[in-house]
Design a protein that fits this description.
The complex is a heterodimer of chains A (222) and B (534). By secondary structure, chain A is α/β, with parallel strands linked by helices. Chain A is built from six helices and six strands; from the N terminus they run αβαββαβαβαβα. Chain A has one domain: Rossmann fold (3-Layer(aba) Sandwich). By secondary structure, chain B is an alpha+beta fold. Chain B contains 20 helices and 17 strands. The chains are: A alpha/beta (222), B alpha+beta (534).
Amino acid sequence: MEQTATPNAVASTSLDRTHPTYTYKVVLLGNTSVGKSSLAYRYVKNDFKESLPTVGCSFFTQTLCLEATTIRLEIWDTAGQEKYHSVCHLYYRGAHAALLVYDITSKVSADRAKLWLQELEKEFFHDEIVIALVGNKADLAAEREVTTEEGEEFAQSKSLLYMETSAKSNYQVNELFTAVGRSVVVDECWAAPAQGGAAAGPSRGPAPQRPALAAGRTAPRA
Amino acid sequence: MAADVHKKKGWEVPNGSLAPGDGQHAERAESPTPGLAQGTEPGAGQEGAMFVHTRSYEDLTSPEEGGAAARSPPEGPGEPPAPPQPSSMEQISKDFSELSTQLTGRALGEEGPLEAAPAAARRDSLLPAKEDEDVTMDAWRLRRKHVFVLSEAGKPVYSRYGSEEALSSTMGVMMALVAWSPLPGSPVVFVRRSPLVLVAVARTRQSEQEIAHELLYIYYQILSLLTWTQLNHIFQQKQNYDLRRLLAGSERITDNLLDLMAHDPSFLMGAVRCLPLAASVRDAVSTSLQQAKAKSLVFSILLSGNQLVSLVRKKDQFLHPIDLHLLFNLISSSSSFREGEAWTPICLPKFNSSGFFHAHISYLEQEMDLCLLLVSTDREDFFTVSDCKRRFQERLRRRGVQHALQDALRTPFYSVAQVGIPDLRHFIYKSKSSGLFTSPEIEAPYVREEEKERLLGLYQYLHSRAHNSSRPLKNIYFTGPRENLLAWVTSAFELYICYSPLGTKAGAISAVNKLMKWIRREEERLFILTPQTY
């Protein structure tokens, strides 16, 4: 019982088995009730439940096996409510990847995701962070307010990853995190192949800075 | 801001005078007889209290913010100096026959609203969900207690039932009413804490003072999300700011607090209930918690349901029961803490209303109701604090107390039958010096929800009579058609017992005697007698 008590413990047992080489910090940002926590929960626990608004921020870890390497993702699931915006920089500081989540049935949430992008651009150089635009609630296509093309076009113009997902029906959630993980690893290899243990939590100071000459992102990654 | 907590000593001033001096517990060992001097009553901590010393809600209702000077005498207005304590049962018995206010016929007159209350409660359960409630409907009017929060500019901030939007005109009327001093006996209670105004319209039998006390809890709950500094800053910038924007998503926390206050005597008692636990197990838990410390940690709290399992604090830092209640409420109102580890800014308004702490909140076991709360001053310290949790769990395992802890969690409440007094149905006992109380599970005949609420209503009534600011009572004997109650309030403890309506007053007094002995015998299990510091 004690081994599987918390997600943390789950991650650390799997960590012992597979020895992930790198730890990357992934932060979920977006308007309130677009499904950030549900995406994280689906990915980490492969389950779905209606959840109440997140308070502050929730922290999960998950080991991800890629072809070449095994990495550990530290997932920071932030609260979308306005009162927590003042502390949000705390959560995305030093992140290797950011998921800008919106709800495809809400135009407002998509606009909000664009604002988050501006915020991230203030904090990060373009090549310092992998950013993915995520249109969640794809299962509610009937009430769609944001078309796939709109999302895709915007993502392309800003060189972001783009994916539509549904945490509820488990559509493309694993794919999303795998694509993000892959992107981060590719970036890291380009930038500094020898860099290890990039666990960049708030307590461990800023993340190792990737050299500015790292490959710029030209096309959306898949 | 949080870092200020250490640097600035200013916050200590208002609370400092209320903190118990260590000296007052000195004579405990020599006087093991049921509790008479403060600090020697059953449940009193042996090594200083965990909490800021609070007698009861006088602390809440006394002038706030800037009223620190008014609070500096530790005894609030309206409470006369405690007379010499009775030292024997004869004396107690004499007290009750001579001094007690016997509430019978006259109290029955006040049963009117009491009898109406269960009916209203039943209606409540049939009423529609909050959001789609039409405020023009009778159903909305029939709610037992409406609570509204508005800004001084009259903007709606929160409404317990129905959407704030639909209530704009009602709020306008309220603003007009705020200008008046409410008529005595009117069911409308206002509490003004600039820049907010809190209003309750209640059809319960609570006193105005108690409803005001609940409104203050709502106010503190809002502060716990925003801090007093931020709240004031916002309204200084823009008087007609719509605060709902900032509070969006937190309405349920306020809803939950109001529901909790209607069911849980902790709020009424201004005290904290402990999970009954063998002293050896609790000590092992506390020691594990104490050893898993970090520099930035101020409080480590382990809780189950709304009961305290263990609390370890930084030396010289006291938590206020109100702050702990707000933490309990935050945790019970959100399911999101069940997954992962939460890291959230939180203001403890009675500790320091101007800054945020950062709280690490997580459940220890997926299927078990055991939640760990680590309160840190450093918002950058997530990984250090998260590691404290890991260390705590490891120590718990190594000490081998997990099974005992699990067993205790299976029976989080004890039965009144354990006391062995046949006519005794229920009781609440609070040790004033420790800020802790104990109470058995509410059992038959209080089975249905509205019956439980009715019992709590009776306690509320006795409590309000005992703490009435113009005429406080020490002993109250209440005979009702369905039960008899007795309240006994001293400078050291408060005891409320509920027993069979067929029991006599003499029987009740001997029950009190037996009960006090039982509590003394069980105090190690029911209270935290040796609070730990890092």
